Amino acid sequence: MAEEDWEGMALEELRQKIDQVDQDLVCLLNQRARLAHLIGQKKKEKNLLVYSPTREREIRENIRRWRGKGPLSEEALWSIYREIISACRALQHPLRLAFLGPRGTFTEIAARQVFGSQVEFLPLETVEQVFEEVSKGNAQVGVVPIENSVEGVERRTLDLLHHYCPPLSIQAETFVEIHHCFLVRDPKEEVRSIFSHPQAFAQCARWLAHHYPHAERIAATSTARGAELAAQTPRSAAIGPALAAEIYGLSVLHQNIEDYPNNRTRFFIIGPSEPSSATGQDKTSIILSTQHRAGALCDALSILKKHNLNMTMIESRPSRETPWEYIFFIDFEGHIHDDHVRRAMEELREQCRMVKILGSYPVSG
């Protein structure tokens, strides 16, 4: 029966039709799972990592192409496939994922956005611990914040990338829309203190000045930790995601209190170094230090221009080896396996005191 004939069917007939479709879907999902399990065995024989951002990017591009004119949006289809991939990945090998905790942080939201729910989540107290657990092999991957569109880079993450890469590398990136909520224990209580991460306070500064100018602001290691503390403290509130309210039993008193509506945070997925294949839409992250002479940084950047590499981020940090000397973190479009990127890296190594490749990975989305 063609789809155009469905409109004339009775309710019970339509439900029977759905039951048949569901039966077919379950059979196909089990078939996909068996194939994924076999692929996992082949990966193990070749000592390949279970998580492959390049392959998952390819699957998403396929879904975008196959969607056609169906009623489901691309985002809706991907949210379904994210969980299918998550379940199939778990059949290949259980994935342990370290992230900045406790439960309910924006970092956990980023992790779920990439890996779905079928992973073992390991919430940790600091970004340092995330790098350490992945480097020791206690977690296969880690998720760490790298920069916010309003407040700028996470400097500690930059320092840790310099320290741990290699043997670790950046395997992927993802972006999370940051929508802050005002979370309270009791909507009827007077709020005298507010817990949150310093960046969340900065991102909601105007709203707080207008609504709670006299409330004490108490810094926490994360927005979720702030919610956890607020749940334990009378006459207090927290600023964080709605997920934190669900986890810690708080009420959402106000939504979307961020001062800037286009507030996004970028996250890196880190893991053991393993060269990924290029997708045609990639980024590469590097660290370099220049000679101590006039125009040295300009000369280094001119090499990127010469090879038509579009720089998307540059940030400086103290070298911590020699006073007043700096290293530079740079992101640009392209993959280390691309010929023009490889030639640029060769020239940079001739020009600079140090060049370190942190990773090449698919552009998010």
Please give a structural write-up.
The chain has 365 residues and is of the alpha/beta class. Among the domains are: 96-178 and 264-270, D-Maltodextrin-Binding Protein, domain 2 (3-Layer(aba) Sandwich), CATH 3.40.190; 181-254, 3-Layer(aba) Sandwich (D-Maltodextrin-Binding Protein, domain 2), CATH 3.40.190.10; 277-362, ACT domain (Alpha-Beta Plaits), CATH 3.30.70. It has helices at residues 11-45, 53-66, 74-92, 106-115, 127-135, 155-164, 198-203, 205-211, 223-232, 242-248, 296-306, 339-351; strands spanning 96-100, 120-124, 141-148, 152-153, 168-177, 181-184, 193-196, 216-219, 236-240, 251-254, 264-272, 282-289, 311-318, 326-333, 354-362. Strands 1, 2, 3, 4, 5 and 11 form a six-stranded mixed β-sheet that branches. Strands 8-7-9-6-10 form a five-stranded mixed β-sheet. It has a four-stranded antiparallel β-sheet with strand order 13-14-12-15, sandwiched between helices. Helix 2 packs antiparallel against helix 3 (74-92) and helix 11 packs antiparallel against helix 12 (339-351). It is globular, with a radius of gyration of 24 Å.
